[in-house]
Design a protein that fits this description.
Blueprint (H helix, E strand, L loop, with lengths): L1 E2 L6 H17 L8 E7 L8 E8 L2 E9 L6 H10 L11 E5 L2 E5 L4 E2 L11 H18 L5 E3 L2 H8 L8 H7 L2 E6 L8 E3 L6 E3 L6 E5 H16 L3 H4 L1 H10 L3 H17 L3 H5 L2 H14 L9 H10 L11
Antiparallel strand pairs: 1-2, 2-3, 3-4, 4-6, 5-6, 7-10, 8-9, 9-12, 10-11
Organism: Streptantibioticus silvisoli
Protein name: Aminoglycoside phosphotransferase domain-containing protein
Length: 322
């Protein structure tokens, strides 16, 4: 969702549009056919809001500028540096076209947010898409020669502190021998782009990238948060109902989760059951991440899902490695 952009100094908007316009003309778009659109993502953030301005032909964007509105926001500069570095082999992501003040202009990654893809197909659609998302993230997680299995407890404790104990013994055991490597850091479905013309996926929003992170958090973030798209009735029925749909009832989404976990485990030489047992760590991590940004998190599904999962491990998880 987007909200109307707050007032922007006319001189700034003129400069942004001039920069985008020149890039579009260099790409062969006639100057009189260049079109612009501006927006600010709608969120509960009180700080670190960003202005986006796209430029392109009448029927398709080509470039988009990302500009921090908060003078203390350093995350956009961080992302700019990450995207300026060579992309890991096989990782589809935007490239930086040019710097712009404390922001930057990047290639437009078509076409739609990943959640839109779930409505394009039958009952097996979630499995196909989540397996495709696994294939998208694997080159990032495994491409660094230093990536591999290890004890991720120090990484989790540095971020969560004593909250980590709330993950429970099974999660803590799984954390002691999981994959450590480059991680996106915010790999929810809305940071995956889906090209409707050919089905290809790409990763956007690299502000939370870590050179050495717990890669299962990326995996589980994508898988778990996709449930919000598959089961939109959670907004009326509550998170307890959502947990039951995800973990308690057999059906297409459980099939999709199993397939994604097994695919990732097979590619990294891990136990799929151990990956699933990291659900509480993932949820605690994502909840804490929101809090660190100064946003309210208690209305989100992370805590309720952790509590649901810890009441009794779903029976099917123990059979994931069979």
């Amino acid at each position: 969702m987007t909200s109307q952009a707050p007032p922007v100094p006319p001189q700034l908007m003129d400069r942004v549009q001039d920069t985008l316009g020149r890039l579009c003309v260099l790409d062969g778009i006639p100057e009189d056919e260049v079109r612009f659109r501006s927006w600010v993502p709608n969120s509960a953030r009180k700080q670190r809001r960003r202005l986006f301005v796209s430029g392109g032909a009448r029927d398709r964007p080509v470039y988009v500028a990302k500009i921090p509105l908060d003078p203390l926001d350093a995350m956009v500069v961080k992302e700019r540096g990450i995207l300026r570095a060579p992309a890991p082999a096989g990782v589809a992501r935007p490239g930086v076209a040019c710097e712009f003040d404390r922001g930057f202009v990047m290639d437009w990654v078509p076409d739609r947010d990943f959640p839109h893809a779930f409505g394009e197909g039958g009952t097996d659609r979630a499995r196909v898409l989540l397996e495709q998302a696994v294939d998208l993230m694997l080159p990032l997680h495994t491409g660094d020669p230093a990536a591999g299995p290890g004890d991720a407890t120090p990484i989790a404790h540095a971020y969560l502190g004593d909250l980590l104990r709330q993950a429970g013994p099974a999660a803590l055991d799984a954390l002691s021998h999981t994959w450590i490597g480059p991680s996106h850091g915010d790999l929810g479905p809305w940071n995956i782009r889906w090209d409707a013309s050919d089905g290809r996926l790409a990763l956007i929003d690299w502000e939370d990238y870590h050179d050495s992170g717990i890669t299962a958090i990326d995996l589980l973030n994508t898988v778990l948060t996709s449930a919000l798209v598959v089961f939109p009735d959670y907004q009326q029925r509550g998170f307890g109902w959502l947990g039951e749909q995800m973990f308690g009832l057999d059906g297409p989404f459980r099939t999709a989760m199993r397939a994604a976990l097994r695919r990732y485990a097979g590619a990294t030489g891990q136990s799929a059951a151990a990956l699933a047992r990291l659900v509480p760590v993932c949820c605690l991590w994502l909840h804490r991440r929101i809090e660190k940004q100064g946003r309210p998190a208690d209305h989100l599904f992370y805590r309720p899902l952790t509590e649901y999962f810890l009441r009794a491990e779903p029976d099917w998880i123990g059979a994931l490695d069979d």
